Amino acid sequence: MHHSKEVAVPLKIADIQPGDNDRTVFNPDELQELAASIKEHGLLQPITVRLCTQSGGKKYEIVAGERRFRAVQLLEWTTIPGFVRTLSDEQAASLMLAENVQRADLDALDEAHAYAKRIEQFGWSVAECAERSKKNARHVAARLSLLDLLPEVQQMIRTKQIAVVFGETMSPLDSNRQRIALEYLVQTEKPLLREFKALVGRLLAEQAQETLFDIQFAEQYVNDAVEKHNTERAAMLKRKFPIDPQLPQMERVGSIGATFEAYIKQLLGSDNPYHRQIAPVVGTIYDSLLRGGMAFPPGTSPKRKNAKP
Question: Are residues 217 and 262 in the same domain?
Answer without folding.
Answer: no
